[in-house]
Amino acid sequence: MSAYDDLMDFQRETEALAQVAGRLGWDQETVMPRGAAHQRGEEMAAMEGVLHARRSDPRIGDWLDRAEAADDVAAANLRLIRRMFDRTAKVPARLAAELARVTSLAQGQWAEARAAEDFAAFVPVLARVVDLRREEAQHLAQGGDAYDALLDDYEPGATAESLTAMFGALRPRLLALRDAALGSPHQPVPLTGTFGEGGQLAIATELATAFGYDFTRGRIDKAVHPFSSGSGADVRITTRTAPDDPFNCFYSTVHEVGHAAYEQAIDPAFALTPLGQGVSMGVHESQSRLYENQLGRSRAFTGWLHGRMTATFGDTGLEPDAFYGAVNRLHRGFIRTEADEVQYNLHVLLRFDLERALIDGTLAPAELEEAWNARFLTDFGYPVDRPSKGCLQDVHWSVGLFGYFPTYTLGNVYAGCLHAALRRDLPDLDAALTRGDTSPATGWLRERLQRWGGLRGPRATVAHATEQEPSEGPLLDYLEAKFAAIYRL
C-alpha cells in the first residue's frame, strides 16, 4: 500500500470515531437522563482524548510527507488532513480533553440557568469555558489574532476584519429596510390561535419530506435548541413546538433539513473522509437559510403550506396572501432563531461583537448580561426582559463555539448568491413550489454544491455553484424587493 492509502485507512477510523462522539452529543440534547451529565462529561473528555491523539499521531506527518495525490480528490484530502494535523499539534492534549469535559457539563448548567432565569448561576462555568477557549486560541494563533484562530474552525480563510467590512455594508440597508417596513401603513396580520403539538409535528414531517430529507438515514426528535447532527448514512435533526407559534416548529424543521440534506447529498465515495462533510459552517448555513427563507417562505411555497395548515387545523382565519404576509411579518422579538429575515442578521452582529470582546478580554463574562442588554436596546429599541430572551437564549457559548455566530450571517450572504443563480437557471421554479415540490431547487443545489462536500474551500464552493464571487449584494437586493412588495413600500 502507498503512504496515501495508509493515511486514508487511518483517517477513516478517526472520522468514524468522531461520528461516535457526535452521537454522544445528540443523545445528550435529546434523550439522555439529566442525572447522567457528569458521567457524560467524562465520556466526552475520554473520546476527545482519543481523537486528539489520533489527529496528532506522528505517523500522519510521515504519511503526509510521502503521500502523492493522484487526482483532485486525493489532493483535497491531503490538504484537509494537513490542516487538521497542524492545528491539532498546536493544542496540548490535556487542554483538548478539559475543553470537552467542561463544555459537556456547561451545556447542562446553561440549560438549568436558562430555565431558572439566573445568569449569575451560569457565570462561573461560562468564565471557565472562555478561559479555556482563550488558551486554545493563543496556542492556535501563535502570535496572530486569537479570534481569527477560533473563527478558522468554522469558516476557514475568513477573518474578523473581512467579516466586519461585510457586516458594515449590510447594516445600513438592513436598518433602512426595517424602519421603512415597520413605518408602513400596511402591516401584515399575524397568525393567531392554538395549534396542537401532534398536528405541528405531522406537518413538520411533511415539510422534511417535501425538502428531500431521507428518513431511512435520519430522524426527527425534540430539543430545547433545534440542531442537526451527523453525516453520511446517519444525519439526525431536532425541532421544537410552541402551541401559539407553529411557524417556529415548521421553519426550524426546514432549517435543520437544509443542514441535513447537505450532509445526505455528499458523494458517498467521500464517506468517512475529510471531504465527507460540509466544507464550512457558512456554506452549511447557506443551505439551511435558503431552504428556510428563499424557498420555504416564498409566496409560492407558503400557498402550499397554507393548504396543509387548513387541512390539519381547520380555518386559520387567513387567506393565502395574508398567510404569506404572516409568515414573513416583521415583528418585535428577542430570539435570534425566531427573527424575521430583515432583522435576523442584527441579532448575529450583536453576538459577533460581544464574543470578540470576550475572547480579547475587554469584556468579562460577569459583564456579559449588562453588555448584551445595553446593545440590544440600542439595536432594537426595546429592553430585554429576562435572561432566557437575552444572553442565555443560545447554547453556543456554553459549548465553547466562539467564532461560530458570524457564520450565520455569512451563510445568509452565500444563500443570497445561490438563490440569485438558482432563479437564473430555474425561471419556472414557482410553478413547482406552489405544488409543494421543491425538487427542482434542491436538485440544483445537490448537483451544484452539496454533492462536492469539502472538495473546495468555502468561497470557492459558492463561486463554483453560482459562477461568480460571493458578495452581500444579492442578499440585500432580494430582501429589499421581497419586503417592499409585502409592505407596499
Structure write-up:
The protein is mostly helical. It folds into 2 domains: 142 residues, no CATH class; 327 residues, Neurolysin, domain 3 (Orthogonal Bundle). The chain contains 20 helices and 3 strands. Strand 2 and strand 3 form a beta hairpin.
The gross shape turns out to be globular
Number of β-strand runs: 3
Strand order of the largest sheet: 1-3-2
Q: Could you tell me the radius of gyration in angstroms? A: 22 Å
CATH architecture call of the largest domain: Orthogonal Bundle
Work out the count of structural domains: 2
Give the oligomeric state: single chain
Q: Structural class from helices and strands?
A: mainly alpha
Give helix % range.
55-70%
List low-confidence stretches: none
Q: What is the string of helix and strand elements? A: HHHHHHHHHEEEHHHHHHHHHHH
Keywords: Carboxypeptidase, Hydrolase, Metal-binding, Metalloprotease, Protease, Zinc
Family: Belongs to the peptidase M32 family.
EC number: 3.4.17.19
GO molecular function: metal ion binding; metallocarboxypeptidase activity
